[in-house]
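User: I'll paste a sequence; please echo it back and then give the predicted structure.

Assistant: Echoing your sequence first, then the prediction.
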Amino acid sequence: MSLESRYKFVKKRINSGVVELLAVSKKQSIAKIQDLYRLGHRKFGESYVQEAIDKIEKLSDLEIQWHFIGPIQSNKTKYIAQYFDWVQSVDSIKVLNRLNSQRKPTQSNLNILLQLKVGDEDTKRGFKRDELLDICRSYQDYRNITIRGLMSIPPPTTVYEQQVVQFKECQVIFQEMQKIITVDTLSMGMSGDLEAAIDCGSTMVRIGTDIFGQRM
């Protein structure tokens, strides 16, 4: 199946004019990103800082909105703050503060999604509900970032009903955020669970291999 066919099939699965598609381009070639751009797509997600910087610099002539979606190391925040338009994986106060201080005032505000931890997986990172809402209450302390909402990666399951339970938890906390600050983005749902995520109010899904094919 061609990239165009895969892309159209994913768009058909989304089947909504209000849900945004983030094409996860980590470990994908620059040529594939250019091909998808020619099909009209503009939002791309990367997880590895050095790989992303190389792509961003080489594709600087294109009007791409770059999202960082991977785990964040403290020693990489200055590069993320400089190069990206969005950061979806902010999982600690330390990282949040570093991104705010390292985003240049001459740049537009860096769009931030706070990562919500759902489930008890030890390997999963993110804020618990109360921590996340406390950040929203102290939002006035930040000058160079804009909190746009939350992102979550619940424990994987192929059972739709279980997916819905987990995504509903995210939706409820997102609605609690909306009572404190203005937020508009609920990023949840990937290839195996995007239908359940959309049914629970997701405004953005993150899809990689189902669009691009196998990674490099």
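Residues 3-212 form a domain with the TIM Barrel fold (CATH 3.20.20.10). The two ends are 17 Å apart (CA to CA).
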